[in-house]
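Predict both folds.
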Amino acid sequence: HDDPDIRRRVVRGGLHTADELDVERLADVFEEWHVAAADGFTRGEPDDRQLDLPRPSAADPLVSHQAAAPDVIAGGDAAAIKRLYVDLGDDWWRARAGALEEIPVLSAPETHPVVARCLSGAHGLVLDAGCGPNPSLSIALGAEPCRTVVSLDIGWGTVRVARDVAGRRDVSLLGVVGDVEHLPFRAGAFGSVACDDTIEHLPDDERGVAELARVLSPGGRAVLATPNREDLRVVRAKMRDRIRGVHKPSRAYYCSSSHLREYTWDEFEQLARTAFRIRARHPVGW
């Protein structure tokens, strides 16, 4: 609510959406669905009708990244998967000029406020592992003078863009380029650790969790967040497909084409327990 750049994009997108949702479009959609239902959905459901919203060009870093990710992930080469994010960072840095207000936040917008609240009492050094090019979590944590935030990402370009974005909001971050699976810090260096929407991208998630625990001081707090494979929207989509007799692989329901995996609550807690003592769950959404 207090970010003018986000507010401006929401207004622009909302006005564009309103122009698209006219009576003619509504009539067309109703007709397609009634015809399909009368036919018993033998040819499947009508295609999703994409709104004619302003879209990024093919040269947009995130578009190129999402197009390349499925093939690289299918290859299973951990080094190539990590290279995807290094290259994405380089692309962010080249594309940054005059467009920092358009750099997206790569975590779910409803998640990072919850993570920030979980660390509201944190003091001293805080690690944001996997900050992304628009480090909204780092900015929220770094706005308080009681904390020094280290914003880490695997891409040098990503870290540089993140520091520039934060600087525009008068927040100073310590940027570090590093791999969550091999963190470049001594044991116990941080009083608090945050890792939001990053673990699902790691080729070796157990190694990543172990590293996050290693750099956390005794008695410190870590907050780990990741998409829920049993999110209500996912369950609804799976039920709809099952009713229609449509069978899709689990990956078809992932939030992003670059996710290596997504977890249920139990799976994520089982992963976390290998290195942490779990104190609480903090659900986002349902």
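Second protein follows, with its predicted structure tokens after the sequence.
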Amino acid sequence: MRLGDVDLRRLVGEALVLDVSGDDGAVSVAALEVALADAETPEGALPPRVLLHTGEPDAWGTTFPTGFRPLAPATIDWLAQRGVRLIGTDAPSVDPLTSKDLPAHRACAAHDLTIVEGLALARIAPGRYELICLPLSLTDADASPARALLRSLG
């Protein structure tokens, strides 16, 4: 999908920030369920945008992270089945850095999910926010830098 095909309304609206930083390895459905219970969010009450704090710092400094937490494809399937249309992460990718087949990216594409990577979520408390995430107007590109803002809903 090209950026020119993305409806910008998908990038603006209610979002749920979840802290899934407690484990190692790919972010699993079990980790999401724990984070949802901690956030006191009723099952099935997900907004169309979910942002995952996996434990990455807000700035990577001079060294690109290599040991970040990717997303398990089953986690993406689980979110999509609950109406999520955008997944954001503080990691630099939804797939491991060494991945050649990009299973998480493929799962997102299969469900028509928009991905936002590299978010600064280390100082954001779990909860509901309004996301405003505007990419550069690069209509033929498949990715772009974006400025993402969160505004508290409560």
